[in-house]
Design goal:
By secondary structure, the chain is mainly alpha-helical. It contains 8 helices and 3 strands. β2 and β3 form a beta hairpin. α5 runs antiparallel to α8.
């Protein structure tokens, strides 16, 4: 997956998360009203992150501004799209990716900066341990269906076990997490069963961004 594709995927997931949170905030009622900042706070977004999301959803007719001070409402097409995605979570909708890859906190990701060959081995704090744990569970379950050879399967298992140990640790090591995700990404990119691997790869890219090990 190219860098541009990763950025686009992240944007789509942010939009989907916001619209889903809006749907929940008004209980799926297009007559309901809520302040946009309430949704932003719930998702942990900054205003700079929220503004382009609001503009996109407005332009696509999925939400509307319904009052002063940032009062918004979900439109009927927005309700339809959210419910369509929830009824068939493994299928993308017109505007959003499949629900089963819309998880993980992609807000306020911390990107490591430094020399191209630097290695960060200090401990850091997971902001989304439960999301990483769920990803590990899904990938372990799907492993036999990825079309990998025996060596790749063995490497996949070792990477997942190492990543699991970091999730369970009180002081997870940045360098180990980064190395595990990098290896998992390469393995998924080389899988032959793309219909199984591609959603998992997209989920991995979201988690790579959200854990701050993208670079």
């Amino acid at each position: 997956m190219s860098e541009n594709s990763e950025r686009l995927q992240t944007k789509k997931i942010l939009r989907a998360k916001y619209l889903n949170a809006l749907y929940d905030g008004v209980d799926g009622n297009s007559r309901g009203r809520v302040r946009c900042d309430e949704i932003r706070t719930k998702l942990g977004m900054t205003r700079d992150e929220m503004d382009p999301v609001l503009e996109y959803l407005k332009q696509e007719g999925l939400l509307e501004f319904a009052g002063l001070n940032g009062v918004i409402a979900i439109t009927h097409p927005g309700v339809v799209e959210v419910e369509q995605s929830r009824e068939a979570p493994s299928q993308p909708t017109e505007h959003f990716p499949a629900q089963n890859i819309i998880y993980g906190n992609v807000i306020n990701s911390q990107i490591a900066q430094g020399s191209p060959h630097s290695v960060q081995s200090g401990s850091f704090t997971f902001a989304n341990k439960s999301d990483v744990a769920e990803f590990i569970r899904q990938l372990k379950s799907a492993a036999p269906e990825l079309g990998l050879n025996a060596d790749a399967l063995q490497e996949l298992g070792a990477d997942l076990d190492a990543l699991q140990s970091q999730v369970q640790s009180n002081r997870p090591k940045f360098g180990i997490v980064k190395e595990c995700f990098g290896s998992l990404r390469r393995i998924l990119e080389g899988a032959t069963a793309k219909i199984v691997a591609d959603p998992l790869l997209a989920a991995a890219m979201v988690l790579i961004q959200s854990t701050g090990v993208a670079n």
